[in-house]
Amino acid sequence: MDLLEKIKNRQALVGVIGLGYVGLPLALRFFEVGFPVLGFDTDPKKVELLNRGESYIKHIPSERLAEAGRSPEGKGKFSATADLGRLGEPEALLICVPTPLTSKREPDLRYVENTARQIAKTLRPGQLVSLESTTYPGTTEELVLPLLSGRLRVGQDFFLVFSPEREDPGNPRFQVSTIPKVVGGVTPACLEHGVALYSQVIEQIVPVSSTRAAEMSKLLENIYRAVNIALVNELKILCLRMGVDIFEVIEASKTKPFGFQAFYPGPGLGGHCIPIDPFYLTWKAREYDFSTRFIELAGEINSYMPYFVVQRVTEILNDRGKSLGGAHILVLGLAYKRDVGDARESPGLKIMNLLRQRGAAVSYNDPYIPQYIGGRHYPGLEITSAPLNQETLQQADLVLLVTDHSDYDYPWIASQAKLILDTRNAFKGIRGDHIYQA
Ligand SMILES: NC(=O)c1ccc[n+]([C@@H]2O[C@H](COP(=O)([O-])OP(=O)(O)OC[C@H]3O[C@@H](n4cnc5c(N)ncnc54)[C@H](O)[C@@H]3O)[C@@H](O)[C@H]2O)c1
Question: Whose CA is nearest to atom 26 of ligand 1?
């Protein structure tokens, strides 16, 4: 049976490499439509948890994994392994490993490269490899392909595509199956195999003419967000000076039925994607003697936002005759966005760090992040979420709302806190001269 047939019959073993925010939901989707799935992750703790049917990602319920372990009627089989020596087993290999920036803000393709080297060791005829990690145009053909093509020919013996992930963690309106998926192949046969596989699990596939076009389309989406968020962030600062409510303005502009999409200001960018991905293109553009000015400017404005929030905290305390040094600030929300437990690149961390450097006593509450331990940017940091009760609210000189989780009872918080600085318009409609916007 050839690969296309195995895909159609849902007998192809699907290997998902990197069982994180992107890889895990994708693996579960393939399992749920009947494919056998083998997940790979270099973190043995995650592998162990997943094999026990326990999810380590808050918005992915453990029930979905528990079911995966039992391989029920009509569904596939799911298991996870840390043994990359088994990469020769699956027919399809979907690479969902991290693509961060180095400390010099250059693409860090270590994970993709290591994975490609591992795949190369056991690559065999009839395997399809798809890179899903966000990266600059050219990665699939310039980095991955040379590592894979030794004795085997691409498009004949094995197939290689790039298909960017569009996961929006925690957004209940979209599932893997309903988010259209872009696919670009190294050859027409590669594209045909990629489209065949993804169309088994996703309603709409968008084939494009090359892997570069697919890589660039993902970056365009994220750059579009970064630039538009920077625009509203800048306008927010101006509106505050003018005494105009930017959120009211956006609601009004949003009623235009064409040519406008609403973006919202905030305390700064966070997450694995928007603060990072645009700079993959900036780096690549240098090879073409080209400077990506919109990306740089957006980056400048967005990375200034945590400093702006801290400046607002200082001014507001000052108005009340208090200085930031020695003040007790309670930060609400450490996650980079609403209703997720992910603090990667979160502006909340930056803000807490800046407040501490300026002498404030800072605590935080986040129902999704009971504890936060260091990480690349804040080594040595170890903090625990404070309970959100009358006492913690009343003790704080200022309550700083960084992430607007839906669990928070805003009218109650407003009734208890002495001073509030709201970076998300979460206290909309609640009156009080102790509530400020930032
Ligand atoms: N999180 C999102 O919302 C999102 C959305 C779209 C695209 N992306 C992109 O998807 C990619 C993955 O992001 P993520 O958020 O899922 O990351 P993640 O950190 O949640 O998951 C990556 C996983 O890969 C594992 N891993 C690292 N190296 C490995 C290796 N060599 N072999 C096997 N496993 C390995 C890690 O242990 C981790 O579990 C990135 O390129 C990201 O930019 C993320």
Answer: 18
Q: Is 109 in the pocket of ligand 1 (CB under 6 A)?
A: no
Residue 287's Cβ-side half-sphere holds a number of Cα atoms within 13 Å equal to 8
Tell whether the torsion through CA atoms of 264, 268, 272 and 274 is positive or negative. positive
CA 18 to centroid of ligand 1, rounded, Å: 6
Q: What one-character DSSP code corresponds to residue 81?
A: E
Q: Is 273 assigned a catalytic role?
A: yes
Per-residue pLDDT at 318 exceeds 90: yes
Asked if residues 302 and 225 have their Cβ atoms less than 8 Å apart, the reply is: no
Helices (H), 172-292: 188-198, 211-242, 246-253, 278-286
Q: What is the residue with the minimal CA distance to atom 5 of ligand 1? A: 167
Neighbours of 384 (CB within 10 A): 12
Q: How far is the CA of 217 from the centre of ligand 1 (A)?
A: 19
Kindly tell me the sign of the dihedral angle through the C-alpha atoms of 242, 243, 247, 253.
Answer: negative
Closest Cα partner for 205 from 171, 166, 169?
166
Structure confidence at residue 75 (pLDDT)? 79
Alpha carbon of 247 to ligand 1 centroid (Å): 33
**Distance from the alpha carbon of residue 133 to the mean position of ligand 1, in angstroms:** 7
Q: Does residue 404's CB lie within 6 angstroms of at least one atom of ligand 1?
A: no
State the average pLDDT for the chain: 95
Model confidence, pTM: 0.93
Q: Which residues contact 132 (CB under 8 A, 6 or more apart)?
A: 22, 23, 26, 94, 95, 96, 162, 163, 164, 165
| C-alpha closest to that of 15 among 127, 156, 113, 176 | 127
Cβ-based burial of 259 (10 A; exposed 0-12, middle 13-18, buried ≥19):
exposed
Q: Give mean pLDDT, residues 272-294.
A: 95
Strands (DSSP E) contained in 121-232 are 128-131, 159-162, 181-185, 205-208
Helical residues (DSSP H) of 274-427, grouped into ranges = 278-286, 293-319, 347-357, 390-395, 410-416
CA 21 vs CA 15, 289, 341, 375: distances in Å = 16, 35, 11, 17
The per-residue pLDDT for range 235-255, each reduced to its tens digit, is 999 999 999 999 999 999 999
- Is the minimum distance from the CB of 337 to ligand 1 under 6 angstroms? no
Q: Is the CB of 167 under 6 A from ligand 1?
A: yes
Average pLDDT for 173-179: 91
Per-residue pLDDT tens for 85-106?
999 999 999 999 999 999 888 9
- In short, whether 99's Cβ falls inside 6 Å of ligand 1 is yes
